[in-house]
Amino acid sequence: xxxxxxxxxxxxxxxxxxxxxxxxxxxxxxxxxxxxxxxxxxxxxxxxxxxxxxxxxxxxxxxxxxxxxxxxxxxxxxxxxxxxxxxxxxxxxxxxxxxxxxxxxxxxxxxxxxxxxxxxxxxxxxxxxxxxxxxxxxxxxxxxxxxxxxxxxxxxxxxxxxxxxxxxxxxxxxxxxxxxxxxxxxxxxxxxxxxxxxxxxxxxxxxxxxxxxxxxxxxxxxxxxxxxxxxxxxxxxxxxxxxxxxxxxxxxxxxxxxxxxxxxxxxxxxxxxxxxxxxxxxxxxxxxxxxxxxxxxxxxxxxxxxxxxxxxxxxxxxxxxxxxxxxxxxxxxxxxxxxxxxxxxxxxxxxxxxxxxxxxxxxxxxxxxxxxxxxxxxxxxxxxxxxxxxxxxxxxxxxxxxxxxxxxxxxxxxxxxxxxxxxxxxxxxxxxxxxxxxxxxxxxxxxxxxxxxxxxxxxxxxxxxxxxxxxxxxxxxxxxxxxxxxxxxxxxxxxxxxxxxxxxxxxxxxxxxxxxxxxxxxxxxxxxxxxxxxxxxxxxxxxxxxxxxxxxxxxxxxxxxxxxxxxxxxxxxxxxxxxxxxxxxxxxxxxxxxxxxxxxxxxxxxxxxxxxxxxxxxxxxxxxxxxxxxxxxxxxxxxxxxxxxxxxxxxxxxxxxxxxxxxxxxxxxxxxxxxxxxxxxxxxxxxxxxxxxxxxxxxxxxxxxxxxxxxxxxxxxxxxxxxxxxxxxxxxxxxxxxxxxxxxxxxxxxxxxxxxxxxxxxxxxxxxxxxxxxxxxxxxxxxxxxxxxxxxxxxxxxxxxxxxxxxxxxxxxxxxxxxxxxxxxxxxxxxxxxxxxxxxxxxxxxxxx
Length: 849
Ligand code: ARG
Ligand code: ZN
What we know:
Layout: E1 9-10, E2 19-29, E3 35-45, E4 55-57, E5 62-68, E6 71-72, E7 76-78, E8 81-83, E9 91-99, E10 109-113, E11 116-120, E12 140-147, E13 152-155, E14 158-163, E15 166-175, E16 182-185, E17 188-195, E18 201-208, H1 217-234, E19 242-248, E20 255-256, E21 261-265, H2 278-293, E22 302-303, H3 309-327, H4 330-349, E23 361-362, H5 371-404, E24 408-409, H6 411-422, H7 431-434, E25 440-448, E26 451-459, E27 474-481, E28 487-496, E29 500-505, E30 513-516, E31 525-527, H8 532-541, H9 545-566, H10 572-583, H11 589-595, H12 601-610, H13 617-634, H14 636-645, H15 656-676, H16 679-687, H17 691-703, H18 708-718, H19 722-734, H20 741-749, H21 759-771, H22 773-776, H23 782-794, H24 799-805, H25 817-831, H26 838-848
Parallel strand pairs: 2-12, 18-19, 19-21, 22-24, 25-31
Antiparallel strand pairs: 1-23, 2-3, 3-9, 4-8, 5-6, 5-9, 7-8, 10-11, 12-15, 13-16, 14-15, 17-18, 20-21, 25-26, 26-29, 27-28, 27-30
This protein binds arginine and zinc ion (ZN).
Zinc ion is lined by residues 290, 294, 313, 316.
């Protein structure tokens, strides 16, 4: 369907813009239903263009008047914008348009959220504000005047004149329209300051509603740390006099890197110990860093077109991952990132929505802000760094910034910087950007007379539109251990570029135990015959923290697969090895909590599907619960000792060491509640002075069918805090027994606080429903129907969030005939709905193809 859709845009069709913009002046006269936007745009013919067709994007705009060089003109309004006969020379275009922010429920363009005005322009939202060449390769300095009685009026760049009812802003750095932002509201600031490496003073402000002023301190510190880090690690300095962040309650995504005026979903910036969990604090620190880092990777150097999205997103995610590693723990962060990649990106890569990190076509670009573009995009940057080394990476980045500052560039430009800086040929490596799918790497070993040989074979299964795959360049980090546990060959990176390749290690006195894909050195699936004894050995002895963890994960997965497919029980050997790992006081508590995390139900479903069987979500859930019981039974003493000895006595701090101890004690609590009842969790709930411990205790209770009183108390305590209430909504669905999940979600949609037009609240309930795998796939099909009903209700108002949430159905082809029939019926019901958004219809079309 996508292939033939007339609205499909293709990378190969790129042509340069006919006109460039030298300067933009915008005046906003804000009014809820009738905001006037006056624009004055200086155009100049693009010497590199092939034609002179003048076209400006525009959507949902009421054109009041238009002028060229001061003379009134009547543009021709066509689908998606306007056109007119433009001079073949520089000229000024002026327009006045009217828009209706109050009725903008799509949260794209200029809209209202709780009485404030705000914008979201990436990717193609600026065309909902005024007529403009809304494409990232048109960059210009912007001057903005805002007229409104609201007390705080913000836009990009540095502040200019202001007074009663108006404020002016100037952004000297040429930027594409997607980085434009405007905010107006009754806001207060948590302020700070930063002195850059060259001595420039920057005023920092985090703008929030009065009631949230107590949730800003952490975000401000995270911003300062990010600014310091980017100077120290990448040599990148901030370039304006002010940096503003605004928290907005209604937002489709996490946050947006608008130049000098980042706009954040309030859930991605507001935090206090009482209202936010350790995971929230870590996520906020990472998102603040991410958006700040975009100032160089995205803003100063931007994308030529939206097919190049990974150019800024993959690189910026990689940078925020490095930052979190530096602030906290590299080992723990790497494991978290690998878990996310496997749970979400491998899932995408193995289903109907698989696409290359640089897609070749799209109908709606908003549908391509995916884990593949972001997280696999970041993995590619990580592989590049491993292949060229830290020094080569540093040189390549310096060259990239120096060469392309102020430009809109492509993946080819990015790779050329690496080639020119390091002399390495990256033509084969470039396949990572164009080829979809997760490579499988098969391992064979040979040992004879002191020579150990590893033979690696790669193979990538077909993905939609790409039946045949080429070998990619896979950096495989390998170390070898002696049977006594000593490391005989420290980590080295093997480069697998061919379909099959052998690597020999000589001079060994005994057959070694290999530790392969250390640090998760490439986003691939390793296929390796390994005995449980070898895994337990690696769990005990591997010097690489990732593979140490991986060995435990492999043991857990093997045990779970046997329980599901052969009906066996929990494996004492695995549980004892796990017990030794979690009791090892030389290991970081956060790492030990990760050892206790079993593979998720969806990941197991995919693994079963790959053995050629339809997964049964109920059986998977039951097996996983049985293993949790088995662990709690056999390791009860260790777990309760860990629970007691890792309690924190002092005041709450979100820093990594304390957070790690809480994640270990909460993992122990959750297991112990299964076998010992709810007393410990109730006590923790009562004593908790922070959200991390409060919500973990509540979750532990709900999961054993208790906690009704606490659930009510929680609601009473937090009914005025919408971010906390999102947790209250989500947790009930997440903790529901499979057969109750749909009913729980449905009952919550009738709750007076279920504000379904707020994306955070909608996602709290329905994200949790699709995340409860056994509940979502309950045999009745009730969850499928409920979700489809609500997606159809949301689609006319907010296509972007609707389209994103259709992904709950993306794995449908894995399941048995009954489930497939039920899901297909819902997908077809959605597809055949009159007036379905382009966003949602593209997603459903791809899933049904
Ligand atoms: N650039 C933003 C970020 O990752 C995300 C913007 C998403 N916008 C969208 N329309 N999907 O930092
Ligand atoms: Zn980003």
